[in-house]
Amino acid sequence: MSHPVTYYCPHCETVVELQREGYLDDKSVTPYPLEGWNYVSAREDYGADDADGVRFVCGEDGSTRDPEADGCGRAFYLSFVRHGTTAAGQALGRRE
Fold it and tell me: What is the pTM of this model?
């Protein structure tokens, strides 16, 4: 079952929203991508195994929670915890 989850743009604080499964494996939201990580747009399959996170374009990718919000047009990044690379990621690897 999915639920709406919100994030703030780190540039202008516009609220964006994604439909996510009940378990979240979020690492961070940053104004820049983490080096070597694979980001997909909010419209793509961000639940795919090869997606390390989501690249938002504030106000331009259809993810703003308030349809009247303009956003700033700048990119920002939601990074997921990578399975097996940290204590948190190792715990995710054991989930069924």
Answer: 0.81
